[in-house]
Fold each of these.
Amino acid sequence: MESKKIADLKIFANQIRIETLKELAQLGSGHVGGALDLADLLAVLYQNIMQIDPKNPDDPKRDYLVVSKGHAGPVVYAALALKGYFPMEQLMTLNQSGTRLPSHCDRCKTVGIDMTAGSLGQGIGAALGIALGNKTAGRDNYTYCIVGDGEMNEGSVWEAMMLAPQYNLKNLVVIVDENGLQIDGATKDILSIGDIAQKARDFGWYVMDVDGHDVESLGMAISLGKKADRPVFIDMHTVKGKGWKKYENVLGSHHVKSISKEEILEPIVALEQENENYGKTHNRGGE
């Protein structure tokens, strides 16, 4: 991948983080950890991978994204607004009375959301149904599904994991956000999921491991997976809360009860400085 494209993706990911922080501070609380750690993936998907058209968000030929870990809604909304699905100022209504942006993703409320999620373990089954429906209709689009590693404790996830290879859903890409933490503790302590990559292989998936904050590796893994002859499973290793040092890899970052506009200034300044450095590096001829 060209250095300019890598820099652009890193900058876009940090822009997503910045807008997510602003949303959460406006509300005064929210899901910090599991939202911020998805920014790099969403930058790659929306900017470089998915076939989408913000002006025609319901095009049946589009690629679909199901965020099964629905509490990551704020970071998805930030990406959608930055891509032009709805006005940026709408982000400031997050989870408030009359909002079109509820805390968890809702396809009936938000333009660009393909599937409602929130009850963990349900989104992956819905994604499988969407992929199967598109395959049956003869469409060549893809369905991407983001699942939390704590969510992998749900039995319904494994029903979907068995079914997708049975129907040879080559148009389904499941990406697990393996940050090692869930609401009550470390995933390995609450209910260890062991080697989920090997489990997926045993279930018949095409499997890859990737650094969830390396935009180049993410793009390469997804592109390679789309050439496979079976459903794709990407074990994505992330740092919960990535981009806000105070909450990186911190258990209490799952849902932060008090977030002020003043305290987000520090991470925003740091993210803006990173973006400035990315721009300078490329402009010096980093290719």
Note: The mean pLDDT is 95.
Amino acid sequence: MSDPERIFLSPPHMSGRERDLVGEVFDSNFIAPAGPMITRFENEFCALTGHKSAAALSSGTGAMDIALRMLGVTTGDEVWVANLTFIGGVSPILYRGAVPRFLDVAANTWTLDPDLLKNELGKADKEGRLPKVVIPVDLYGQSCDLDRIVTACDAYDIPVVVDAAESVGARYKDRHAGKGARMAVYSFNGNKIITTAGGGMLASDDEELIARARYLSQQARQPVPHYEHTETGYNYRMPSLCAAVGVGQLEVLAERVARRREIFDTYAQAFADLEGVDMMPEADYGTANRWLSVLTLDPETVAKSPMEVIAAAEKNNIECRPVWKPMHEQPVFNTAAHGATSVSDRLYATGLCLPSGSSMRAEDQERVIRQIISTLTA
């Protein structure tokens, strides 16, 4: 008997239009990281998010790297970042020779705790060690409480670069997630809610910053006929083929968000009667895109750990994952400064990410639900 078809955590979901748009790129012969399709993708992304300007880049990590450089982050500077996150938004701190400091998240949002941030900034000001930049993170498609974070940082003239890699299509109050920071970084990696196969976007209302980001992303080439360089840049520009996929994906983003939220709600209803099982909360200030459906298992009530559930699901060809391992526990950062980490530690110990792809069939989700329930009640 053959194994059941694999159910992936968050696979790409094409609409069909992407193929035609890629064909347009071939017809135009703008295959390299230049041409009208990149401009179109940037413009349509700005129309969606409300940002005044955006630069399409090769990855969200590259976007963060450029953002920190433009803000003058250099050797020895402290950069504060949410502890519960993926390493892609943190590594650029080390690229700049700077020092990360990890701050815990709030239990009701799983994103950077604004009260903790305000208190820590006050202490740092007295000690003369304010951070150069603060990086809050939108987690699993939920926006951080950006206004409170920006207000706390504005008191000390500290710029905020929000890692919105996971929140394309999410809302914060009356606007798109990420808008309101000095800059916002988005990701279109293959597992995100929409994808360009690989790629990212740096967006801002500061059009001069984004113009400089484009310049730096193209090897910092001076606007002269020959190749002239007065500073070093990067090869971070997004290829036109990827931008074409992105244009097609933007067309169906609303549908993808609606489907992911539907998947989350179906899980929530299915597990409602399981004692000790709680779904990730939704902040009262926004609407999450529910990129991933995530739950927690209370160890005082539930006999199985997330890792045991993951192992049992894998035997039946279902991909589940733990919550992000906090940055302060990563070996590469084990000497980095951090304060209390109780919320991040608890979420990592109890959190479980479920298959959430917008192309997942109802029968596939029912199979996941049966698997989870059978494991937890065995």
Note: The mean pLDDT is 96.
